[in-house]
């Protein structure tokens, strides 16, 4: 991927568009002067060497690669002719064929980074339409490697499922942390200490998982085999329906992703 490539991010003023922009600049994938970002109301103060515009078609016209980083509801009002250029959508639910028809290009990609793109730790699954070239795939892979790690998946159904699992992923440790913190406070631990303890546990677990790269099943099994307090906690959570609750949540996210696409 050449740094001379001109990239435009529609919705670059939002958190995800801005995170992608920062990641590809930091990784040296694009010269900041070849980056154009659009905003809706007030121009952000980030990326002073890049171009900002409120005209999405002007952004598309000057870009080689167009990244769509807007809410699906806002996309329905977005009129943009890509003129055969590579379009990468990071919107949940919007199908490849809808993107291709709306934006006049067969070179469309659906990708789903998550909030951890802000710190270069996103996991991004993606899939390209039949018109996507080998060079396009290399560009997509490089962009999302800059945001963390990435995989090209086999079907749009995979993307719909992963919308919940990895796209929403950073919310799930936060949900667990909130429940743990609430329980700690209920047992008399001060909120400040409870928050610090819980956040440190989650951050440490993430770093450990990244370093050891083991299967989660193996990690859980190791704790269960030790038969200590952690094993007791795991068994108690599972008896209360932990695994089923996670499956229900992922199923709800999958159904929501499919329905968002159907509405397009």
UniProtKB/TrEMBL annotation:
Q: Name one GO molecular function term.
A: pyrroline-5-carboxylate reductase activity
- UniProt binding sites for NADP(+): 10-16
Detail which positions bind NADPH.
56
Q: Which UniProt keywords apply?
A: Amino-acid biosynthesis, Cytoplasm, NADP, Oxidoreductase, Proline biosynthesis
Q: What's the Enzyme Commission number for this chain?
A: 1.5.1.2
Q: Which family does this protein fall into?
A: Belongs to the pyrroline-5-carboxylate reductase family.
User: What is this protein's function per UniProt?
Assistant: Catalyzes the reduction of 1-pyrroline-5-carboxylate (PCA) to L-proline.
Q: What is this protein called?
A: Pyrroline-5-carboxylate reductase
Question: Upper taxonomic classification of the species?
Answer: Bacteria, Pseudomonadati, Pseudomonadota, Alphaproteobacteria, Hyphomicrobiales
Gene encoding this chain? proC
């Amino acid at each position: 991927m050449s740094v001379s490539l001109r990239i435009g991010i529609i919705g670059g003023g939002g958190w995800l568009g801005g995170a992608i922009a920062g990641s590809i600049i930091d990784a040296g994938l694009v010269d900041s002067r070849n980056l154009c970002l659009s905003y809706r109301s007030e121009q952000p103060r980030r990326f002073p060497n890049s171009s900002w515009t409120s005209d999405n078609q002007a952004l598309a016209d000057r870009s080689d690669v167009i990244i769509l980083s807007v809410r699906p509801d806002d996309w329905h009002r977005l009129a943009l002719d890509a003129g055969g250029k590579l379009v990468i959508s990071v919107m949940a639910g919007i199908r490849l064929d809808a993107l291709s028809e709306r934006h006049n290009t067969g070179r469309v990609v659906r990708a789903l980074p998550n909030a951890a793109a802000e710190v270069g730790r996103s996991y991004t699954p993606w899939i390209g339409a039949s018109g996507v070239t080998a060079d396009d795939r290399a560009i997509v892979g490089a962009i999302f490697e800059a945001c963390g790690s990435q995989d090209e998946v086999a079907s749009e159904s995979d993307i719909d499922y992963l919308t919940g699992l990895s796209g929403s992923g950073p919310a799930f440790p936060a949900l667990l942390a909130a429940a743990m913190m609430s329980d700690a406070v209920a047992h008399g631990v001060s909120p400040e200490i409870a928050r610090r303890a819980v956040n440190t546990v989650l951050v440490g677990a993430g770093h450990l998982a990244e370093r050891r790269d083991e299967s989660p099943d193996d990690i859980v099994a190791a704790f269960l085999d030790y038969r200590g307090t952690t094993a007791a906690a795991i068994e108690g959570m599972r008896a209360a329906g932990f695994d089923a609750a996670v499956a229900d949540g992922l199923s709800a996210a999958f159904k929501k992703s499919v329905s968002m696409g159907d509405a397009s």
